[in-house]
Amino acid sequence: MKITVIGAGNVGATTAQRIVDKQLANEVVLVDVLEGIPQGKALDIYEATPVEKTDVRIVGTNTYEATSGSDIVVITAGIARKPGMSRDDLMNTNSGIVKSCTESTVAASPKAILLVVSNPLDVMTYVALKASRFDRRHVIGMAGVLDTSRFRSFIAMELNVSVEDVNAFVLGGHGDSMVPLPRYSTVAGIPITELLSKEAVDRLVKRTRDGGIEIVNYLKSGSAYYAPSSSVVAMVESIVKDKKRVLPCAVWLEGEYGLRDTVAGVPVKIGRGGMEEIIQIKLDAAEQAALKKSADDVKALIAKISL
Length: 307
Description:
Elements: E1 2-6, H1 10-21, E2 27-31, H2 37-52, E3 57-61, E4 72-75, H3 91-108, E5 113-116, H4 121-132, E6 139-141, H5 143-159, E7 166-167, E8 170-171, E9 179-180, E10 186-187, E11 190-191, H6 198-209, H7 211-219, H8 226-240, E12 245-254, E13 260-271, E14 274-278, H9 285-302
Parallel strand pairs: 1-2, 1-4, 2-3, 4-5, 5-6
Antiparallel strand pairs: 7-10, 8-9, 10-11, 12-13, 13-14
């Protein structure tokens, strides 16, 4: 198994480290346009492997030759979100970056599965899909795993319970119109609507929607990377081990949930074939309307992209 991570910033480098630590590949390639950065970070990660007893080879590079034949490619490249900057502000700059990275990736690894982390994530997933011309099963955006993890964390904090007992679902776009589903969110199988007041649930839903900017505001000059890297590595692991986990991910829809010609976060089964199935759960009228609005917001942004 060979895995490439494009972008050696905080998200990319931490993703590469987690892949090595979990021994999910025989070889990991870290790519970045900045000379010396991927080489130095990859060497640093590799020098930790004797201590961690993880026998994985990792190299850094500024070109795509070393990525040839990758099974999975994680795209994290792009400028980071800054205070006062919406995800939409990132769109024009990062679409060009992701398009270029995808084209270079496809030339070197035409059978790879692409996992997109770059923001604004739903639109960048579309950019990677169109630039690669891959089947939609092989281009998957990470967003929902991260948003769900944040929702689970906030529920655990609110109820003072173990995160291990908390399950949740967040659908829709990775932004202000994301759709957390309290009805499908539980603690040890108990719906959180039975454990928390509506006001508390609404507060946690809002905090989940603002989860990214909350961290940006704390950091001042950066954005989240520990939770995003963990989230995409969960997807990598499900592919490598053919675990067939059901995770909320951003995919191109062709009629599922009544939505078409857009990218939205929905529950998908992930295995060695990439996105192997879209799971369609029953939504009530309000949930369906919220998901449609979220998907329509992404569709409106996609319409502004010229590829």
